[in-house]
Write the structure tokens for this entry.
Amino acid sequence: MGSVGVTLPWELRISTVAREGISRVEPSERGSHANPAAGNPEDMALAAACQAGDLHAYERLYRLQGGRMKNFARNLLGTKSDAEDAVQETFLKVQRSIASFRGHASFVTWTFRILVNTCHDLRRSRMRRKEIVPEEREERAMPAEPRAPGGHPSLKLALERAIAQLTQHQRDVFLLYEVEGFRHAEIAEMLEISETASKNTLFQAKKNLRQVLEAPRSSHAGGA
Amino acid sequence: MQITCKDRERIFLDGSAEEWAGLEFHAASCAACAEEVRAWKTLSAAAEELRDYQESPALWPRIAAALVQHAKSSVIRTSWLERLSFWRSVPMVWQTAMAGALVLLMAITAGYLYLQPGPGKGDPNSPLLKDRTLAEVERTERDYMQAIDKLASQAKPQLETPTSPLMASYNEKLIMLDSAIDELRLQAGQNPSNAHLRYQLLAMYQEKKVTLQDVLETKR
């Protein structure tokens, strides 16, 4: 699913320069207190159609967000099959609890909150059953996963390993912000934290990632 | 905007676009900040490596099938929930109060039922018998009558040909008891739930039994 979404907030937020992989200027979200998608007529219409039990509405939700959902779940759970299970389970949970959606948050944000919780539940249950030990998961699953075209395998692998060392909260925020392109306001709604907490968590996550990723290079450089 | 090295972390944390521009301007003349900004941006760029939005053609059909199946299986449950949907418009305070009242009502009902005597614990002095109890009484009466009839058949030879005045008086007594029993049974048949009639009938049966036992004792 190449470019996901018609007019997604993250598409507006991420500059073309950043998307080409050169650099990404940190966005300013000051003043963007409310979730831009909350109250969005298109978002509300989609939620209403889902509430009415329209299967086409669910399909539209999938076409708009399925790619991002699956990508987030794969980065969190490690394998494509787990990610697909998580997305399917999320859709079923959305269907089950759509009646309780009152439009206070964006429908997409609400859906992602369910996805995040579903992924955590799946991860916990798999850990409990010892089906996947985290270290093994990295070694076993990641090389087998199909890589995005044009991606740098060693960079991706190094980043995945570094992300695995973050706390669950830091991992969630980093993936949602840097990979999936959500705003801090949206992440705050999803994770039920404050916007400031989301910013602080991202800052800490990036500092930790830098330490992990640059440590071998620094030591190598120091030794040369 | 005057940006110094001290502002760097704050801008990384929550800098505006203007502050970022200022930091980049500062970094042009500060090697340490230039390295930090480069590393910070590289991390964001590297995160894009984790974006893989490749289509999974089989996933949506799988989800759709699960959604349809789930929708079918929850039709009954949904109709139930729809009936209760008015709850959503009721303020939370009222919902809590009504839930509390319901729990209290259930507790009182449970307590009342617990303290109420069961069917087997009915008041034996009650003048009216319930259907189940009546059936039990009638069955016991039948058995009791059959047992007394056996006694009567054993005493019959002595009673039909009384050999002494005592035996003759026993015979008369039994004839009177049978007559009284028949009359009481007739009344009990018309008013089967009347416990008082049943007690009288029982007394008659007991008297007949004792008399028959006396007849048999006399024979010995």
